[in-house]
Amino acid sequence: MKQLRKSSLWSLVLFSILFAVISSPPVLAQDARYVIIDQDAVGPAGTDMNSMLVFLQSPHVNVLGITVLTGDGWRDEEVAHTLRLLELIGRTDIPVMAGAITPLVRTQQWTNAWEQIYGKVVYQGAWSSFRPKHGPFDVPKLQEGNPTTKVSDEDAAHFLIRMVHKYPHQVTIYAAGPMTNVAQAISLEPHFAELAAELVIMGGSLNPHTDDKEYIDSPRHEFNLWFDPEASTIVFHAHWPKITVTPVDVSIETHLTKEMLDELKKSSSPSGQYIARYTRRPGDYLWDELAAAAWLDPSLITRERYVYFDVSVDKGISYGDTIVWTDDDKPGLDLQKAHVQMDVDWPKFQKMFLQLMSSPTPGAKNPQLELSQSH
Fold this sequence. Notes:
about 40% helix
């Protein structure tokens, strides 16, 4: 009888353990999708930094690392903003790698000469006149505080290559700045694209319906692909299993509104507080945030085009412009088709973004952002 009671007790214990395993939430590292964030990272807040938070706030994403390059700003200042963001939200376990400091071919001096023939380019990222003037390797005092953590010794291109070899066909490359880092990885490892799971890009422009002066007369111009056209065309000619593009057309359907910022101010989440505190002005497009969120939930996109995609490297007036073809007019080139997002369910995206940013950061340890709302 005693043996029977003992056996019953062990059965109950084993059943309890089994039930706990089955009913417990999945472990992030075992269940998550792998992504590398390749980004120009002007900050604090703004679309570059906020898009990183979309991934970092999701319990279903394993961010393997963040690779940074010159684009919206100079690389080394962007690296500092990225390191500081990770400190503020408590994710300093994620490595940050420095990448390209300049485009492969385009230079600022050559671009200035080009403008004398073909006209002014409204936005030039790190080269824009409104950017703070300092050298490409200088890091000024940051508004959010300078980081104490350090950038990795490994460069961006080699990190990208190492990760797709470590996790073949599992890693999404999220590229939301110029394409230089990804092009360098392809040049060093010809099978890089094939070893990735997919490529997700914020970039390009087809025919946006807007009065925005940057696009109304130049509908095929978009900064990320324009800044380094040679890198862009290398990337689009590589053999990716899948390419998804978030262009200007769909991005301008979104805005970080004052109402959204007011909602985030109420949050006790470091990520929500970070956006609310450091956003420079409400109303900006959610360029990169949408590209990240639509990868997490493709149902946000209500219409897309599936077309051949490339970037002009003709040094004339079209240099850096987006080019697309259908099966009917495609040239005899080895081109990749891309899923190009054209419309978004804005209320659904808005709700998702606010929920993500108001939630605790998965895996956070000792976040340094002071959550006092007295700012």
